[in-house]
Amino acid sequence: MSATSPVARHPHLSAFHLSRRVTAGVTGGIAGGLVFGLLMAMMGMLPMVASLVGSTSAWAGFGIHMVISVLVGLGLTVPFAGVLGSYGRGVLVGLGYGAVWWVLGPLVIMPAILGMPLFMVNMMAGLSLMGHLAYGATLALVAVRVLKGRA
Q: For residues 55 and 63, is the Cβ–Cβ distance under 8 A?
């Protein structure tokens, strides 16, 4: 490899590091998705998630939720793994990331798809915020562990 190749100039872009970032996002997304999915099941939210594809099945909602959880996990770890250097910092970043996705997901994207009013903040939205924070913290903790090579 020449000294001028992109990988030589930016070792964090190596295939190994990208693979580790992807693994961290998938693993963290699954872990966070399971935690949040359990909360959603207890609150009866999964049929609403299923309505995104025209279903009312809680199982369909859970499957959709898990796919979204992995994609959102990758959205943190692939481009931003560098900010996940420690567990403490990871939790803070994860909480912030969860809060951002709370605004984007249930307050903007989902209501827009379902033809509902945007930014409806009520009791259910408050419970959803708690789930998104739990998701973000879990995602980040697992991702830090994977990125540190301990998974």
A: no
Strand ranges (E), the chain:
none
How many C-beta atoms lie closer than 10 Å to residue 96's C-beta? 14
How big is the CA angle at 92 (ends 111 and 76), to the nearest 5 degrees?
Answer: 60
Cβ atoms of residues 120 and 133 within 8 Å: no
Decide if 76 contacts 97 (C-beta within 8 A): yes
Q: pLDDT digits over 70-111, tens only?
A: 999 999 999 999 999 999 999 999 999 999 999 999 999 999
Q: What angle do CA 9, 85, 12 make, to 5 degrees?
A: 15
Q: If 0-12 CB within 10 Å is exposed, 13-18 middle and 19+ buried, where does residue 57 land? A: middle
